[in-house]
Design a protein that fits this description.
By secondary structure, this protein is of the alpha/beta class. Helix content is 42%, strand content 17%. The strands form 2 sheets. Strands 3-2-1-4-5-10-11 form a 7-stranded mixed β-sheet, with helices on both faces. A 4-stranded parallel β-sheet has the order 7-8-6-9, with helices on both faces. The longest helix is centred in the middle third of the chain and has 22 residues, at 150-171. The model has no long low-confidence stretch (mean pLDDT 96). It binds 6-O-phosphono-beta-D-fructofuranose. 6-O-phosphono-beta-D-fructofuranose binds at residues 16, 136-138, 180-182, 234, 264.
């Protein structure tokens, strides 16, 4: 085993929680401990560094968390950390704790914060290595094909919509369901395909209400459907407004459901636990092997680590192939 300069690292979760964050924390701690590196859990995201809110972690401290949603380290979106003074305070804590590196589990904002912190340390002549692990149910990180939590959130939404469908079928109604995804429609796209939705609205495509909703409901009716499921990504518009327009323009009386934060909870799926474990492992190796500031990504299922600055400049290609599948399956009418 190479003799690493890295003796003690911090791990934190930041931004919106995602199922599988705990599995990533566990993998980071266990890999570090196994390599003789001490691990400190920073609590409540970057605020934990500002407020000296941390716990010493060992192998036992991450027992029985791989199956838990949420995050044992808590999470937050830190306003203070966006400012130089906040980060200066955080660097003081890093110095006091003797941290050589930090694994930050979260989304785009989390990684930008990590990079800013590392740069500020460098400006003071100090080295603080940072590694990011993508975790968000939105799956909207440009550099990584997959983000921890997405699969669990998809499955939760599908389970809820399957239940909704039963009552919609019984009453021959139309359901309008809003799923999360502030700027990204991946969740709506995957879920829409998986539930056999009548229509799906996502922020990546401008909504043409007549073609994208009204016409699809009409086709479904002509094909014999007596109930309809319209899935709306949060970023594509409000389900309440969509429901109102359907009432006005189609003359039916939809029921609206906003799934909301229920999609962020629950025990992570096997895919999320396994991906999180592999990412956590690679994150620690990346620190120990001194590869610089990195983001641990998946590319076609493989784990790769990319330079953080380059990775943050990447944008995600819209998944046109999936959208075409959705279009093909929603244009012929009928549900499922
Ligand atoms: O984590 C991503 C996300 O769930 C988005 O889909 C959603 O718009 C946002 O977070 C909600 O954030 P909050 O938990 O602050 O309400």
């Amino acid at each position: 085993m190479m003799d690493s300069k890295v003796k003690r690292i911090g791990v934190l979760t930041s931004g919106g929680d995602a199922p599988g964050m705990n599995a990533a924390v566990r993998a980071v701690v266990r890999t570090a401990v196994g390599r003789g590196v001490e691990c400190v859990g920073i609590r409540r995201g970057w605020n934990g560094l500002i407020n000296s809110d941390f716990i010493q972690m060992d192998a036992a401290s991450v027992s029985h968390i791989i199956d838990k949603g949420g995050t044992v380290l808590y999470t937050a979106r830190s306003r203070e950390f966006m400012h130089e003074e906040g980060r200066a305070q955080a660097l003081t804590t890093c110095k006091l704790l003797g941290l050589d590196g930090i694994v930050a589990i979260g989304g785009d904002g989390t990684f930008r914060g990590a990079l800013a912190l590392s740069r500020q340390a460098a400006a003071q002549g100090e080295q603080l290595r940072v590694v990011g692990i993508p975790a968000t149910i939105d799956n909207d990180i440009g550099c990584s094909h997959y983000t921890i939590g997405f699969d669990t959130a998809c499955n939760t939404a599908v389970e809820c919509i399957d239940k909704l469908r039963d009552t919609m079928q019984a009453h021959e109604r139309c359901s309008v369901v809003e799923v999360m995804g502030r700027h990204a429609g991946y969740l709506a796209l995957y879920v829409g395909i998986a539930v056999g939705a009548t229509a799906v609205l996502i922020p990546e495509r401008e909504v043409d209400f007549e073609n994208d909703v009204v016409e699809k409901i009409r086709r479904a009716r002509l094909a014999g459907s007596t109930h309809y499921m319209v899935v709306v990504a949060e970023g594509a518009g409000s389900a309440i407004d969509i429901g109102r327009r359907i009432h006005e323009e189609v003359g039916i009386d939809p029921r609206v459901t906003v799934l909301g934060h229920i999609q962020r909870g629950g025990s992570p799926t096997a895919r999320d636990r396994e991906t999180a474990s592999r990412m956590g492992y690679e994150a620690v190796l990346s620190l120990i092997e001194d590869r610089g500031n990195r983001i641990i990504c998946t590319h076609d299922g493989r784990i790769v680590d990319l330079d953080m600055e380059e990775a943050l400049a990447m944008t995600k290609q819209f998944q046109m192939d999936r959208y075409q599948v959705l279009e093909a399956l929603t244009n012929t009418g009928g549900m499922q």
